[in-house]
Every structure is written in C-alpha cells, then in structure tokens.
C-alpha cells in the first residue's frame, strides 16, 4: 500500500469532519421536524375540516395555511388553528360543529377561495361534501330515545329525510306509544354539524365525528343473501335443502323460556 | 489602531451626515415592513379588504394571487400538485424577487426582521460575545433538510415551525403561543448566537438568497477609495462577510454575494458615503479625488 506512512491531508480530514457534522445535524433536525410532521396529522375528533378538504395526510401537503377560506366564510364558521391553543396543525382551517356549524352555502365560497386545491375544487355540489358523519352517540340521554318528540336534529338537518330520518319503534315503557329514532344515513350526511349545534341537551347527544371514527366498513367479500337472491330471482346456491324452521307452539318450551311469548298466529295444520 | 475605531458605532455618520441621513434606510425599511404588515391588517382590523390572506398566500384586490415560493416548493415535493392560482402566485413572487433581489424579502418585508434586529441592537449595547457561529452553509443544509423532510413526510414541513408565517398569521388571525416562539428567537439571537436566526438558520432566507443570485438591486462600494477603515459597516452588517470582496477587493465594487439582504445599513453608517444602492451592471467606482493622497485623518478634521 502506497499510503502507509503518509498521514491524511489536513484539508481532507477537515472536510470529512465538517461533512459528518453537517450531515449529523441535518439528520437530527430533520428527524425532529419529521416527528412534528407526523404529530400534526393527529386531528382531534371534534375538529372538522372545511368542505372538500382532502384526506388529512394529503391536506397537510396541500394547505399553505393562508386563511383565504376563513376570510370567505360568511358565517365565521372556519378559523385557523392557533399555535399551542388548538390541537390542530397550526395555521390550518377547521371548525367545531357545536360552536358554529357549516351552513352549507350553495356556492361553497371556501372551496372557491382555496388557491392550492387543498379544498378540492371538484366539489361543486355542497350536498356531496363529506366533512364528517353525524352519529347519535348517546341513546340514553337523547330525548327521542326516551320516547319524547324532540325531533330537533331531524328538523334542522339541511338534508332532512335523506341524511336523518325518524324511524319508529314500539315504546316498551309506555306500551302504547312509538319511539321516533333519529337515524343518520351516512351516504347523505355531509357532516355540516347543524344537528350537533342544535341538540337541546347541555352536551349534544348527536355529534359529527370524522368518518374514520363514525363508520365501520363491510368486508369486500360479504354478500347479502337476500339482495343477491332478489337480483338473481333464484337462490344464490343451488340445491340447498330447506329444513323446517322450529316455530313456537305446542311441543316447544316457548312459553316457559324467559321472554317467551304466545305466537300471534297458529300453524294451520296443528290440530289437537 | 487609532482612537477613531473606538468611537461609538455610528457617531461619525450622525456627526457628518445628520441623524436623519444616518438612519435613512433604517427608517425606510421599518416603513416598508410596517406597510406590508398594515396591508394585511387593514382588512381584519378596519374592514378595508385590499389584501386577504397571509405571507404564505394572499389575494390582493380580489385579482392578484401571491404565494410564497418556498412553501409552494415544499408542497410540490410533498406530493401535491397545486391548483393554477397558487402556481401563478408563486411564479409572480419568484420572478419579482429574482429581479429585485432575493433577500430584499428578509430586510424589507419579513416580520421577524425587526425582532432579530432588536436582538442585535441589544446584543451590541450589552457588549455580548458573538457566541455560536455555525458555518455559512448551515442554512442551506437546513433548507435541503426541510425539502427532504417534506418529501418523506408528505407535509409542508417548515410551516410547522416557520416563525415568519406564524408571526404574520398570528397578527392577522390570532396569536396563540406564537409570542413565545418570537421571544425564543429574540433570546437565541441575543444570548446564543449573534445574527443566529436570520444569518445562519432560517431556510426561508437561504431560499430567497438562492432566488436572488442574479438580482438587479445591489449595494456597491463605489466610493471605496474614500474608506477610512473605521469598520462601522462590518459592525452593523448582518452578513458582514459580503463586504470585504467589494470594499477591499481589486475587482468590482458591487456586493454580489446573494447573502446580502440589501438592508442599506452600510450606506447609513458610513460617514464617508462609500456605499450606495445601484444595479448589478454598474461596476463603476468613483475616482479618488487625489490619486495618491491617503485618506485624511479624522482627528485633524473639524466636526
């Protein structure tokens, strides 16, 4: 080896040291920044993004935090997150439904104002917005669930009878009344939050949640047999033996079992 | 060394030019910084909507979009292809600063500049040590790091910490705890590192410096033959390595380093009027009045 005995040049040594120092510093600072960037994605459940907002990760790559959407909002619904005050990525727009809900303007001025497309300009009908999904989170305190006719969330819903319907059920407590259950249909709910804002309880029983919290999802391979059967006009699987169903009646312990009841019909062929 | 190098900084300029002339560009800069801030504040404070938005992105008179090109670049690298409005705004800002002078942004527009200027002023008054002085390339390394992190994390990384847009947004929309961040930068510049933030750390300044590498507006030491070596310009310049090549070099008297922020402090502070604003093609020097005479000693000159 020709290098044996010749010390490395001081310039080279210095260059290597400086480069290592710079690279090390950059990795340390960069890691800190990357950690902050990950942390910023944790959007609190009660903070809702404006209509048309891209999914949170894409939103943070697109939103330059200029506040033009906030300025265009005629109802002062939107606000920019303040550093250390709101647990939302600092400077990004959001709203809290219980404070000021989205009034679902027809011309969607916030989306029109967005210069970067962080609010998707492809959203041209506010009814297609997906800011979140309303969920009736507290069935024990909801007045309608108690059998009363509050109905406020249903009445105020801008997409009434599509996004929220009242489904009737027997009121077992009174025995002779109906319960009108406010039922959210996620396909139509825009997540505007007017229902949450209007809930008469001190703490709303219906809340708009981010879709990730509000909804489950069905597995791709699940088929609903009754739908398939209707579509085909025949059983989905051929040759299934239809075993007789065990019906209530004499010879069973239906009346003895807890919660057992007298059937409302008699099997015609039973004669004894 | 003569006694004149020990005179309080700027006293000679005030004595020979008057206080106003010795603070001309400082006053103009403060006016400019205030002007750009007030433009944004007129709307939220008085309902006069000339400019909407913040320094990161704005809309003037409902027609002129402006976008911070560094924020725009991070957004691109993070994987978002922005709408045309933001792209047009970024190009306008990019071209404007590329023509006028990249770091003109730093000393004439940026709201953090008065903070770090204040820290430096106090630093000088207290006679503190210059402290930690990272290498000149540090902010470029940080800028590259920010761009890489933007790419890896898919977020506009520097906007998570950028004190410039945070302070500006704080004033226009609501402060939160941004004041703490501003105080931290003030203390960093005061006790940890002289000219630390703007001179060594801020990747926004580094980016604007790169934009303005070939910019028109330049300070020139056109009258460098009149320099009497008082060193005041070195003391006030926030990037004082840019002065020597122009003032003491044999080539062009233009300060061509992209690090120069065109703040004009050297022009204000110089009692001999060595420096002036000019364009980058003006390589002329003022011929010395007497070709062989050395500069007149100050002590013998009446005030």
Provide structural commentary.
The complex is a heterodimer of chains A (272) and B (303). With 272 residues, chain A is an alpha+beta fold. In chain A, 25% of the residues lie in helices and 10% in strands. In chain A, the strands form 3 sheets. A two-stranded antiparallel ribbon of chain A has the order 1-2. Chain A has a two-stranded antiparallel ribbon with strand order 3-6. Chain A starts with 9 loop residues before the first helix and ends in a 40-residue tail after the last helix. Chain B is mainly α. Chain B has a 3-stranded antiparallel β-sheet with strand order 1-2-3. Chain B has a two-stranded antiparallel sheet with strand order 4-5. In chain B, helix 7 (138-153) crosses helix 11 (203-211) and helix 8 (163-173) runs antiparallel to helix 9. The model of chain B has no long low-confidence stretch (mean pLDDT 89). The chains are: A alpha+beta (272), B mainly alpha (303). Chains A and B meet through helix 1, helix 2, helix 3 and strand 1 of A and strand 1, strand 2, helix 3, helix 4 and helix 7 of B.
């Amino acid at each position: 080896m020709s290098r044996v005995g010749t010390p490395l040049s001081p310039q080279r040594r210095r260059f290597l040291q400086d480069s290592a120092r710079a690279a090390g510093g950059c990795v340390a600072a960069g890691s800190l920044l990357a950690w902050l960037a990950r942390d910023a994605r944790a959007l609190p459940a009660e903070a809702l993004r404006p209509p048309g907002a891209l999914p949170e990760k894409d939103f943070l790559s697109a939103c330059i935090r200029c506040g033009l959407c906030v300025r265009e909002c005629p109802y002062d619904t939107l606000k920019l997150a303040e550093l250390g005050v709101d647990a939302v990525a600092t400077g990004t727009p959001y709203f809290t439904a219980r404070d000021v809900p989205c009034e679902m303007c027809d011309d969607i001025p916030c989306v029109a104002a967005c210069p970067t497309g962080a609010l998707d300009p492809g959203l041209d009908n506010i009814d297609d917005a997906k800011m979140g999904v309303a969920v009736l989170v507290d069935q024990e305190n909801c007045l309608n669930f108690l059998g009363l006719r509050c109905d406020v969330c249903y009445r105020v819903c801008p997409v009434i009878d599509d996004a929220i319907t009242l489904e009737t059920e027997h009121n077992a407590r009174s025995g002779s009344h109906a319960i009108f259950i406010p039922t959210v249909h996620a396909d139509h709910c825009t997540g505007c939050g007017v229902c949450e804002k209007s809930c008469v309880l001190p703490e709303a029983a219906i809340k708009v949640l981010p879709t990730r919290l509000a909804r489950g999802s069905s597995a791709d391979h699940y088929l609903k047999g009754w739908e398939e059967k209707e579509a085909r006009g025949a059983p989905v699987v051929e040759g299934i033996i239809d075993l007789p169903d065990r019906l209530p009646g004499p010879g069973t312990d239906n009346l003895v079992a807890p919660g057992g009841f007298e059937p409302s019909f008699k099997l015609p062929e039973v004669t004894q | 060394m003569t006694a004149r190098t020990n005179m309080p900084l700027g006293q000679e300029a005030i004595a020979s030019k008057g206080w106003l002339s010795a603070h001309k560009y400082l006053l103009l800069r403060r006016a400019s910084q205030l002007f750009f801030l007030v433009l944004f504040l007129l709307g939220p404070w008085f309902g006069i909507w000339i400019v909407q938005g913040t320094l990161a992105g704005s809309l003037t008179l409902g027609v002129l979009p402006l976008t911070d090109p560094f924020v725009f670049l991070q957004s691109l690298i993070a994987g978002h292809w922005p709408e045309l409005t933001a792209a047009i705004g970024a190009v306008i800002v990019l071209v404007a600063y590329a023509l006028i002078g990249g770091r003109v942004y730093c000393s004439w527009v940026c709201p953090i500049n008065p903070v770090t200027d204040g820290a430096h002023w106090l630093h000088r008054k207290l006679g503190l040590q210059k402290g930690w002085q990272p290498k000149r390339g540090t902010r470029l390394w940080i800028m590259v790091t920010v761009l890489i992190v933007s790419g890896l994390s898919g977020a506009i990384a520097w906007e998570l910490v950028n004190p410039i847009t945070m302070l500006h947004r704080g004033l226009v929309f609501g402060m939160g705890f941004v004041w703490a961040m501003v105080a931290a930068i003030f203390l960093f510049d005061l006790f940890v590192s002289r000219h630390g933030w703007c001179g060594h750390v801020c990747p926004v300044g580094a980016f604007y410096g790169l934009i303005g590498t070939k910019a028109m507006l330049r300070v020139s030491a056109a009258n460098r033959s009149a320099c009497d070596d008082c060193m005041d310009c070195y003391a006030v310049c926030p990037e004082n390595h840019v002065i020597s090549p122009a003032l003491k070099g044999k080539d062009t008297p233009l300060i061509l380093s992209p690090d120069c922020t065109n703040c004009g402090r050297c022009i204000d502070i110089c009692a001999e009027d060595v420096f002036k604003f000019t364009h980058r093609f003006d390589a002329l020097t003022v011929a010395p009045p007497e070709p062989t005479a050395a500069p007149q000693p100050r002590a013998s000159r009446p005030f």
